Amino acid sequence: MTRRFKSILGVAVAIGLATGGLAAGVGQAQDMKFFRIGTGGTAGTYYPIGGLIANAISNPPGSRPCEEGGSCGVPGLVASALASNGSVANVNAINGGTLESGFAQSDVATWAQTGTGIWEGKPAASKLAAIANLYPESIHLVASAESGIKSVADLKGKRVSLDEPGSGTLVDARIILEGHGLAESDVQAEFLKPDQAADRMRDGAMDAFFFVGGFPAGAIAELASQHQITLVPIDGDSAAKIREKYPFFAADLVPAGTYEGVDGDVTTLSVGAQWVTSTDQPEDLVYGITKALWNDNTRKLLDSGHAKGKKIVKETALDGIGIPLHPGAERFYKEAGLLK
């Protein structure tokens, strides 16, 4: 990984401190369990969604029980959302045992677990297992309006950020370029997170950048409020051929008005955002976490906490998953009637 993970503890930790749960004696401390969720950059969608989920599944020692208006998470669990470089970095950290779980694009998770695609020639992350599919991640190709970029082909010779090494965005950006007959050497490639790329675009030093995530993305929304942008479509025959070659891509649409100044619908591609873990994690723990993810209290937090939270529904929890379910998650989905 190119950057140390930064730990951002969820609201649940503060609740535990306020109730004295973190200082209630050795007995309670021994019962406490920590569960980290690797997300992405703070300007993206993974990070706020991770914070919401960490809050929802946490139930530190000393918290009031759910039926008394307290936490409805896993008893004794303190979950935290960590900012990271994204999908590839999260998978590597889970595989290396330095993270309990993380978010990853469906393509990255499948390649890693099977040792194919970008993982070909490297040891497969054979213990990688899914907790849930969360929501579709749209591929954003953001261009400065003054750059004149109207299509992927127009990127040739332009200053384009493909995102940081370790991110799923970089993987997909390379696929998009290749699918439109461009090599990475055909653009002036830079490797920045979207907030950094947006800063460069404001300064007139960046023509376009890729971002894969749920809309609206904070960095893009902020940029659009200060600088005239174009959301470049990824469509037509080239996009169809990409979907045919890589079935984990789906056709997608960013609705008009999602970002200031983008007045029409923009056709693009998407991949699934998935929550993954390791089979080394205990079955009962992951069962409890999966159950907490889909309770009514979590539903309220997701619906009110982020625009993409409303897309995280139990009915699509198994969509597009190309890796095995964790046994604890599998047990929950069977009990819930979603899996035979």
TrEMBL record:
Annotated keywords: Signal
Coiled coil start-end: none
Signal peptide: 1-23
InterPro entries in UniProt: TRAP_TAXI
Protein name in UniProt: TRAP transporter TAXI family solute receptor
Gene3D superfamilies for the chain: Periplasmic binding protein-like II
Database matches in Pfam families: NMT1_3
Top-rank taxon: Bacteria
